Amino acid sequence: MSNNPRMKLFEKRDWREYLELLARIYDLLEGASSRIPFDLVEGLLRNFYADHPLASVEQKISSFVIMAISDLEVLKDSHDSQGNRFIEATREGKSLLKLGEELILNRKKFTGLGAEGLMNSLNNILLSENVMTLAQGIYQQLPAYATRLS
Prior knowledge:
By secondary structure, the protein is mainly α.
């Protein structure tokens, strides 16, 4: 698995951001034919990075596209006979997004008695109106919570 180029995505500092961008691009690809004009992808990226300084936006767009096409191989770059640039999905990109979706769907959810116990503990801390550090709050409620678990 470590030899899989798609796994390089999770080594990146901004991997969540990149995964979200890939999902948005693949949403565009699903709504279109097998490929979409590069201008659409560039516009999506420009909107996503709109709050960054302009020079930073251009660099982020460029580095994301290079990473997605060359490093991760999750998008494919092509041109038609008139020289128009297009972006296409790859099987590897689809499998990466499926992996990300499975990880999200299988994530443990905090529900039931555990969630109720946590909410009661937080309410007790708020009602006590004492100023305390996070560690003090956790340790104060830990015995009560541990009793509920046993």
